[in-house]
Every structure is written in structure tokens, then in C-alpha cells.
Amino acid sequence: MRLFVSLDLSPDLRDAVATVQESFADAGGLSFTDPTQAHVTVKFLGDVDADRADTVSETVADAVEAIDVGAFDASFEGLGVFPSLDYISVVWLGVDDGSRELTRLHEAIDDALAAEGFEREDHEFTPHVTLARMQDARGKARVVDRVENTHPVAGRMRVTELTLTESTLTADGAVHETKESFPLTE
């Protein structure tokens, strides 16, 4: 099973993500993510044997409890790309308020899972919502212009939990199913 730990966006923020995506409608070469599944990936695990799923759940629950990050407000605004404006693979919406808390949660979960034999992230964690993947460079100039010259504000939400999500790849795209929730103390 393909698993990741995420912060799932509220329905109104998912609508706002769709609006931000519309601002890239004239940029060719982009494959947009489904806004109804908009989330911040806190830790991507990839393919995990089904018999290790319980260990993952327990480890994440323990890490979230131990780091003691209470519920917090997060704002979603600004644009960026991975890996760089010279070579764009992913276009994203950033997290402003709440990025410090998400980073602390990521680090705690990454450390705890590494102790269980899972690979650590090999890049710096940047809290974000993936808007689109660039399939070819037709719309690169438009993407660069919007990233450099606009600062959309999608909105805010109260973060009260993280989820363990299973992602099943289908011909119509990924289908996400919440396997477990990890509450943050209020």
C-alpha cells in the first residue's frame, strides 16, 4: 500500500485551491492535481507492506503525541515551484502561518519512522499544497511570471489533526483514503 501522512484541507480551502489553479489555465504543459484531494504532505512513505501499516500508525501517533504540537491556525498563500524556476517539475501553493508547526511535526514523524527503518527525507521540508505538475515546458514562461509576480491568498484553517492516507493510483489519477487520524491537542 502507498502511504503518506498529511494535513487535509477544509472544503472551503479546496475550493480556493481550485481558484488558484484557474489562474494557470492558460499555461500549457501543466497537469493539475484534483483540488478535492488537496493536502499538505507531511511525510511521504511510498509503498509499505500491509503488515507494517500498524507499526506506521503507532509510530506516527506516538510521534505526534510526543512532539506536543497543539492545534494551530495555518494560512495558505504564495506560489513556488520545485526544484527551481529554471526547471519546473511542481507548482505549489505555500503555507505561511503554521509552517513552523508543520515542520516540527514533519521532523518528529521523520525521526520516529527512521528509527523503524523507513528512509528519511532527502530534501528540506517545505510545507505546500501541490497545484500542478509540469509535463512539458510550453507554459513555463506563464508559470514563472505568475510565481514571480502574484501572491494569491487562498485562506486559513484551524489544524486539529493529521491523517495517514493510502493513495491508490488509477487510470483516472490517485484515489486517497484516510486510514487513520492523529488529533492535535486543543
Automatic annotation (TrEMBL):
Keyword Hydrolase tagged: yes
GO MF: 2',3'-cyclic-nucleotide 3'-phosphodiesterase activity; RNA 2',3'-cyclic 3'-phosphodiesterase activity
Enzyme class: hydrolase
Motif stretch (HXTX 2): 128-131
Domain of life: Archaea
Keywords: Hydrolase
Stated role: Hydrolyzes RNA 2',3'-cyclic phosphodiester to an RNA 2'-phosphomonoester.
Family stated for the protein in its record: Belongs to the 2H phosphoesterase superfamily. ThpR family.
HAMAP family attached to this UniProt entry: RNA_CPDase
PANTHER family from the UniProt entry: RNA 2',3'-CYCLIC PHOSPHODIESTERASE
Name the record gives this protein: RNA 2',3'-cyclic phosphodiesterase
